[in-house]
Amino acid sequence: MDRLVGTWRSTGRFVGGDNAGDEWSGYDIYEWFPGRHHMVHRVDVEIFGGRKEAIEIFTPRAGSSTEFDQTSFDADGTVEKAVGRFDSEGRYRNDGEGVRALLTFHGPDEMRARWEMRQPDGSWIDWMLVIFARTGPPRIEVRSKGDHSS
């Protein structure tokens, strides 16, 4: 998990689904919570014509150093859960409710994620591609606006 720590400029492009061709950008910040038992992931992006902010907590699964429960709290009140794990090649696999991702590391300052979305028939389609470029150490800046409806 240490390799996630930092502030990342994130850019994404939808390659499938209803929003294919749309792009978005923002920042992802990962840092250890005091005690280093949980990792905090802050998301602040412009997507779908508006701003999306979220805090996600990574908690190690009992008895495992490679599997994590992930709980994301969005500014709109949505709570999402996922399970993540590092595979034997050092990639991070994320399995959520109807979506999944494979995060790969390209040197110390670049990550890429390939997201898939489950279709009604149970098959998976490519959904989104994301590139993360490290811009520095973790720095969570609270810039919330009062109204998150747009």
Structure description:
The protein is mainly β. The chain has a single domain (2-136), classed as Lipocalin. Helices cover 0% and strands 59% of the residues. It is built from no helices and ten strands. The chain has strands spanning 6-14, 23-32, 39-47, 50-60, 67-74, 79-86, 92-96, 99-105, 110-118, 124-136. The protein has a ten-stranded antiparallel barrel with strand order 1-2-3-4-5-6-7-8-9-10. It is globular, with a radius of gyration of 15 Å. The N and C termini lie far apart (33 Å). The mean pLDDT is 93.
For this structure, the quaternary state is: single chain
Shape: globular
CATH class: Mainly Beta
Unreliable stretches (pLDDT < 50, length at least 5) are: none
Q: Provide the succession of SSEs.
A: EEEEEEEEEE
List the helices and strands and how they pair.
Layout: E1 6-14, E2 23-32, E3 39-47, E4 50-60, E5 67-74, E6 79-86, E7 92-96, E8 99-105, E9 110-118, E10 124-136
Antiparallel strand pairs: 1-2, 1-10, 2-3, 3-4, 4-5, 5-6, 6-7, 7-8, 8-9, 9-10
Q: What's the short version?
A:
Helices cover 0% and strands 59% of the residues. It is mostly beta strands and 150 residues long.
List descriptors.
150 residues, mainly beta, Lipocalin, 10-stranded antiparallel barrel, 10 strands
